[in-house]
Amino acid sequence: MKKKRTQLFALGNEAVVEGALLAGCTFFAGYPITPSSEIMEVMAQRLPMEEDSVFIQMEDEIASMGAIIGASLAGRKVMTATSGPGFSLMQELIGYGCMVEAPMVIVNVMRGGPSTGLPTSPAQGDVQMARWGTHGDHPIIVLSASTVQQCLDMTITAFNFAEKYRTPVILLLDEVTAHTRERFELPFAEEYEVFSRITPSVPPEWFHPFQDSLRGVPPMPPLGAGYRVHVTGLTHDEMGFPTQRPEEIEEAISRLFRKIDQFYPDIMMVEEYKTEDAEVAVIAYGSVARSAHHAVDRAREEGVKAGLLELKTLFPFPRPQVVKLARRCKCLLVPEMNMGQMSREVKRVNNGITRVRTINRVDGRIITPTQILKNLTQI
Amino acid sequence: MLNEVDLSKYEKITAKTIPTEKGISSGHRACQGCVEILAMGMVMKAVGRNVIVANATGCMEIVTSPFPQTAWNVPWMHVAFENTSAVASGIEAALKIREKHGKLKGERPKVLAFGGDGATADIGLQALSGALERGHDFTYVCLDNEAYMNTGIQRSSSTPYGAMTTTSPPGSNSIGQSTWKKNVPAIAAAHNIPYVATASPGNYLDLMNKVRKAIAIDGPAYIHIYAVCPTGWGIKSEKGIELSKLAVKTNVFPLYEVIGGKYILKENKNPKPVVDYLKIQRRFRHLSETDVEYIQKRVDAEYAHLAAMASCAAPEEEENDE
Predict the structure, then answer these.
(1) Rounded-to-integer distance, Cα A56 and Cα A4, Å
(2) What string of DSSP letters covers B192-207?
(3) Is A271-378 in CATH node 3.30.70.100?
């Protein structure tokens, strides 16, 4: 008899919690903020019931980040969740996380901004901030999700990327995705991969905490396991000690980039829909991708050869997939709930190959299929 | 005696002289039975119209300024969650320098900062401490409803022991909130500022007079107001004021002032048992008798500590406002 998957009917935020628990999250520190509070509330109930797991409510978002960095270095799989204003406070420690290579997942449920903005309305205004929010040149992975099922899947992926590449991973949801209640399925254990960080196999006296290797990702012992680890936000050499030597600085920073760069094919995730023969392609992410999906179907009914490229990885930007599409299509349409943050990336890689049109909406309402359809038929 | 505090500008309010005009109007969107907005109204009545208000993110910010309306009749600014005190510092410093150079017409406006318990005890504590330490002439009012009510009743460090919130859910392995309430008035008093007080909207004259004292003195003042939240605490909406009075009568929330380092306690001669206070609130419904006993002991101990502090400081004769 064929086994049936467990079906649940819940919010996107709750699916994030399910995904985190499947991925082995054992530590959550957070601070309530609309529209991400449900992640924290469900974590407060679920985590204490899991074995060896900790939930803490911190006094602000800076403290939340501090707590998860500490727990990450101590060997936990960690997560926090927030929204725009909290994400602003987290930026300094996100940079610290990049520098000390602490695996962690930060969920940012985007709401209207700037500042307090529109706490209960969707937006996608934090896209470039997720990439460049913290100071200094740094690599980072930014993912997004458009359905409740994807919230679960992408949370597992976020944990895997964080652990594989020892880096902070930001999962960008928007208010609509997070507060949509719909059916989703829990995958069977054999259907998804759970990756945990590699711990050193050498004896403590041989261990160099930030040594370069082919993968560029050094093994990571939990603090207190007998390995001497010196962790600092200062630029450090392979022993973890602060350095001023140009050759060591160069090596350390370029390794940070290389460890992400060389795995681009693994990291860049997109979903294509009817793009094989498309003449106009919509490039969308988050809840807008769902409107676009519908708009593409309706455009096809009206005889417009439309297609959809849904970005699941926002950064590193899926350049090859977008360029491939740009070469084939007469026009690329980028609808987003901001004044044009991802379309900037699309225009950059498009570099004059084809036309790029944008739909921007910042009134706190979603981009509807009709709005996209209107633009598709006009092209 | 630590500091000499000049209270010569203090104008006392009596039942006959309660101001009718206030800087905040009715018709706001607070929940039915909200005591926090009542307390805010009392503060605004006592302060008068010559005031600039900085308000942290929270219930009061949301309910008084729903699009496209506002309940405020005075200059009011909503600032980010963590920096009300810092913004109030800036306003005060700017007004002071303008006054010094003779560019300010009329009397210098009072600066008032409002924050909830989350904005005061958690995220805004650093900014509050900084502002108190620098000695700005402003009044900080903490409206303490003992959780993050605005985002859906999550615990704060001001949530009392045993209370049920969405992030401190009670169950077989949890009592609810597992830590004792953070004593922010004591933290404020430790900055050695001229005036610190706790107040309850159940004792409204006392509350308004404390605000009057706070604005009369020169330098920072901190007032911690107990603000019952029927929605978050699980009580009937008409029970708010009753509960405010009960919190004082059971010593759960003793009323005291710290003037220039001197503790002045409003003595409660026949305290009621804490269980009277706990049993009418849904957030404490899961507590067992032993839990209640523990809370009673702790409340008694804290009150005794406060009484000892008050007797140490040898208070001068304090007029009773009610």
Answers:
(1) 35
(2) T-SEEEEE-TTSHHHH
(3) no
Residues sharing a CB contact under 8 Å with residue B298, sequence separation 6 or more, in sequence order: B161, B180
- Positions of CATH 3.40.50.920 in chain A: 271-378
How far does the CA of residue B268 sit from the closest CA of chain A (Å)? Answer: 33
CB atoms within 10 A of CB A351: 9
Chain B residues touching residue A115 (CB < 8 angstroms)? 80
C-beta separation of B184 from B102 below 8 A: no
Give the 3-state secondary structure of residue B296: helix
Q: Which residues of chain A form CATH 3.40.50.970?
A: 6-191
Single pTM value for the model: 0.87
Contacts of A48 in chain B (CB under 8 A): 173-174
Do β-strands A141-144 and A313-315 pair in parallel, antiparallel, or remain unpaired?
Answer: antiparallel
Contact check, Cβ <8 Å, B123/A59: yes
Enumerate residues 61 to 120 of chain B having a beta carbon within 8 A of any beta carbon in chain A.
Answer: 78, 80-82
Interface ipTM > 0.90: no
Closest residue, chain A, to B123 (C-alpha): A60
- B39, B201 in Cβ contact below 8 A? yes
Q: Which of the listed CATH numbers 3.40.50.970, 3.30.1280.10, 3.10.290.10, 3.40.50.2300 matches domain A6-191?
A: 3.40.50.970
Per the CB < 8 Å rule, is B151 touching A33?
yes
Judged by CB atoms closer than 8 Å, whether chains meet at A85 and B151 is answered as: no
* Contact state of A60 with B82 under an 8 Å Cβ cutoff: yes
Q: What angle do CA A312, A315, A36 make, to 5 degrees?
A: 65
Of A32, A44, A45, the CB nearest to B148: A32
- Identify the residue among B122, B126, B167 best suited for mutation to test binding to A, counting A beta carbons within 10 A and taking the highest: B167
Residue with tokens 């600066």: B111
- The tens place of each residue's pLDDT in chain B, 322 residues long, gives 467 888 889 999 999 999 988 889 988 999 999 999 999 999 999 999 999 999 999 999 999 998 888 999 999 999 999 999 999 999 999 999 999 999 988 899 999 999 999 999 999 999 999 999 999 999 999 999 999 999 999 999 999 999 999 999 998 888 999 999 999 999 999 999 999 999 999 999 999 999 999 999 999 999 999 999 999 999 999 999 999 999 999 999 999 999 998 899 988 889 999 999 999 999 999 999 999 999 999 999 999 999 999 987 554 555 555 5
Going by their DSSP bridges, the two strands A306-311 and A78-83 should be labelled as unpaired
